[in-house]
Amino acid sequence: MTGIEAHVQQPYKYGFVTDIESEVVPAGLNEDVIRLISAKKGEPDWMLDWRLKAYRNWLKMSEPHWPNVKYGPIDYQAISYYAAPKQKPKLESLDQVDPKLVATFEKLGIPIEEQKRLSGVAVDAVFDSVSVATTFQAELAKYGVIFMPISQAIREHADLVQQYLGTVVPANDNFFAALNSAVFTDGSFVYVPKGVRCPLELSTYFRINASSTGQFERTLIIAEEGSYVSYLEGCSAPMRDEHQLHAAVVELVALDRATIKYSTIQNWYPGDEEGRGGIYNFVTKRGKCAGVNSKISWTQVETGSAITWKYPGCILQGDNSIGEFYSVAVTSHKQQADTGTKMIHLGKNTRSTIVSKGISAGRGQNTYRGLVKIMKGAEGARNYSQCDSMLIGDKCGAHTFPYIDVRNSTAIMEHEASTSKIGEDQIFYLRQRGLSSEDAVSMIVNGFCKEVFKELPMEFAVEATRLLGISLEGSVG
Amino acid sequence: MAKGKVLLEVKGLRAAVAGNEILKGVDLTIRDGEVHAIMGPNGSGKSTLAQVLAGHPAYTVLAGGATYEGKDLLDMKPEDRARAGVFLAFQYPVEIRGITNSYFLRSALNSLRRERGEPELDPIDFLQFLEQKLKSIGWDDSMMNRPVNEGFSGGEKKRNEILQLAVLEPRLAILDETDSGLDIDALKTVAEAVNQLRDPKRSFLIVTHYQRLLNYITPDVVHVLADGRIVKSGGPELAHELEAKGYDWLRDAAMVS
Description:
heterodimer; A: alpha/beta; eleven-stranded mixed sheet; ten-stranded mixed sheet; 35% strand; B: alpha/beta; Rossmann fold; six-stranded mixed sheet; four-stranded antiparallel sheet; 8 helices; globular
């Protein structure tokens, strides 16, 4: 089995550091730091007040320890809450972005230069605490689609931000959401007007570069009546011996008949074989299907981070609204993941689908945790859940905690679960047909994840299969 | 009939699984184009012989050897044996979720073609190739877009093994109890396909517990394996004798000798 494990535990390919002069706020968190962040972003007073209120709430909260993960105490005063590469304060065009930053994103496969851009994908590139470039903004504006760093939106579209910020994930929702609300730096803002089908895939790439910093991004996506948007996020970080905190908040709002498709490829540095270093990925993501016949679909491929703690969920408020969650979570080395979803059914005839694939290798621990809640008024609600775990080797673990809370007797719930182990016999069968053992593992893992990969936009399906060391051919088509 | 070149030569092969010695000195020579049947009671080591020749890592070779096309077979990795033309039709084929039969077959075929320095087949060329193959054995393509063996009946799984054999065109095809669990119609279908695939450049080693498969596939040589050794070899008539008398008389003979 060592061959199989070695294959799953490939070296991290994005661990380089960009040598760039950064402005880093000294470590520590207090109201002055928050005022400083707010000032650096040129924020209006209401935003600062919102942050301070969140901070004061956070002080009263304690770090949650119910997830099935183990880690040492986090010193919140040892983290720097703001780091930004030094560059011209006002960029006339993307061509003025520091070439080092351009090269960094290029190396990550995210070209931001005009001539090299990915066709069909608009990208917001976030480096530490700031957005350094957002492509296709002008083109999108022709359709009335707003796609910009959230710090810019706070200044330029205050009405929209004020109307929706914190309405899906309140500032005091949980410890990490409160922390994020106090200190969030950048992230993306998307607004798709009524009846518009966003002509491009929107994408944000998050890169942590500076050491001893945390990244606290905030993303807000609003899809007006009858609109459609597909949004992708990717991320990576250098290899460092220290743990770095990444506590993001993502809020989605889908109004009547709107659809939001949100895909994540999470590839933060996972730490080394002994569990040294790696990102603590403590994230709150939630979407509200506020309108009738609206739909929110989450797809995530979680391969990185030392610890992942996230439950992208849907509040199905509008009648006939649909929530979906498709997840592949991989833990190898000493990685730990406690991830899943929450589907809260409020409206009539609301439907939700959950497909979770957990893969554990090395000494990885993989937990699925999900809540399906059918409220009293959710007449005719339906849920289908499927949780599959795959074990590679004999030192890893898979755990499943499905919570089901049904308060309406017309609800129909289905839950399927399976645990399998990649066995010698399976590998041997494929090798007997001429495949190398690496290709054999790839094929088995790829087949296991297929139901999730097929939900990803094409560009990301490629990335996802590659990340798992899998050839493209199997997953697509 | 002029004898073909020696393809596989097994000498004094002893092998164990989980510390138990199963093969206790097997000698076997298979020439080009020959069909050999290995019969024997349960636990005699028939399937072990098949697995050892294919290179299953759970089995340990204790002594003896096997050459294939003059090369040390036991020194080769399982995938290298496959690429050199050794094919095992499994007694218990595994399921592979989410991977279609057609994709799996193409991946396998292309890994053999790469080895032989031939260009890989793209999906369209492969489909044409596959259609011809299916036609030659008189089967349809109903299994092609289903995940490998998933939800297949026992008979479908065995048929699928023979289809892989047809597509991969091995030089040495080892059939491990392909007949077990098949009803008479399925047995005939499989046997007909195997007969279609008989070729002067292809040899077969057919492992079976019962004689009935050999009613449809006439072997050149029949061996009886008992307690890890080949205790008797003969022509096709030996299979009929075994059917009539059972295995006990041979086992007794083996004890005496």
